[in-house]
Amino acid sequence: MPMEPDAGPAHRGPAVQDRYPDDFAWCYGCGRHNPAGLHLKTYPDGDETVTVFEPRPEHMAVPGFVYGGLIASLIDCHSMATASLALYRRDGHRLGDPEPVPRCVTASLKVDYLRPTPLGVPLTVRGRVVELGQRKAVVESELYAGETLCARGQVVAVLAPPAMTPGPAGAERRPG
Ligand SMILES: CCCCCCCC/C=C\CCCCCCCC(=O)SCCNC(=O)CCNC(=O)[C@H](O)C(C)(C)COP(=O)(O)OP(=O)(O)OC[C@H]1O[C@@H](n2cnc3c(N)ncnc32)[C@H](O)[C@@H]1OP(=O)(O)O
């Protein structure tokens, strides 16, 4: 049976971030072109999305626990990708289609830190769209360490204006 292009993370098709336009793929959290970035990858999983990331020792808050800013970054980039995928699907596309996935920017990011997040284990972020507008999506994401729910985010994503270009024309692009 042919592999469904967005049938879920088990199939390891393209990640949402693999399909952002090149000019918009420099984000510190998830830009595939940013050599110093975290390179987060978000995959569809049915009506949800999933990102798995194992924090490094330098992502420490206190020994043994993850820095809250990293947790916010995971929820932010994962939720943007979730919103982008929902807008892409709403336009009739599936991940793997040749058209690039539209890029969203974060309008609002709220994170509830429910319990300390341990270092040394992979973290899983799961997200779902709870409101989809013409240019806007509201996404709820949950971050787990193993089976333990450690943080929950609510994020408002807005479609980036298509005509805008990042940085001066012709300039060499640098991350940051
Ligand atoms: C890196 C900065 C990029 C800035 C943009 C550059 C151009 C795009 C180029 C390339 C895109 C790729 C870039 C990669 C990005 C990587 C991810 C990040 O790190 S993002 C960085 C942090 N985020 C910002 O810096 C956004 C700054 N804010 C804004 O630019 C505007 O406020 C923006 C675009 C978010 C909205 O402005 P409006 O004038 O286009 O649209 P309105 O009408 O105000 O809002 C649209 C809908 O969103 C709701 N909304 C807006 N702000 C909200 C808020 N704070 N809370 C709740 N809802 C909000 C509104 O109520 C409205 O909802 P209703 O359609 O009426 O239902």
From TrEMBL:
Primary location group: membrane
Q: Which reaction(s) does the protein catalyse, per the Swiss-Prot or TrEMBL entry?
A: octanoyl-CoA + H2O = octanoate + CoA + H(+); dodecanoyl-CoA + H2O = dodecanoate + CoA + H(+); (9Z)-octadecenoyl-CoA + H2O = (9Z)-octadecenoate + CoA + H(+); hexadecanoyl-CoA + H2O = hexadecanoate + CoA + H(+)
Q: Which SUPFAM superfamilies match?
A: Thioesterase/thiol ester dehydrase-isomerase
Q: Which InterPro entries does the UniProt record give?
A: HotDog_dom_sf, THEM4/THEM5_acyl-CoA_thioest, Thioestr_dom
Q: Known EC number(s)? A: 3.1.2.2
- GO terms for biological process, alphabetical: fatty acid metabolic process
Name the top EC class.
Answer: hydrolase
Residue ranges of domain Thioesterase in the record: 64-148
Name any one GO molecular function: hydrolase activity
Q: Name one GO cellular component term.
A: membrane
Cell compartments where the protein resides = Cell projection, Ruffle membrane; Cytoplasm; Membrane
Q: Which keywords has UniProt assigned to this entry?
A: Apoptosis, Cell membrane, Cell projection, Cytoplasm, Fatty acid metabolism, Hydrolase, Lipid metabolism, Membrane, Transit peptide
Residue ranges annotated as coiled coil are none
Give the bilayer topology: Peripheral membrane protein
Which Pfam families does its entry note? 4HBT (PF03061)
Q: Which family does it belong to?
A: Belongs to the THEM4/THEM5 thioesterase family.
Name of this protein: Acyl-coenzyme A thioesterase THEM4
> To which species is this protein native?
Thermaerobacter subterraneus DSM 13965
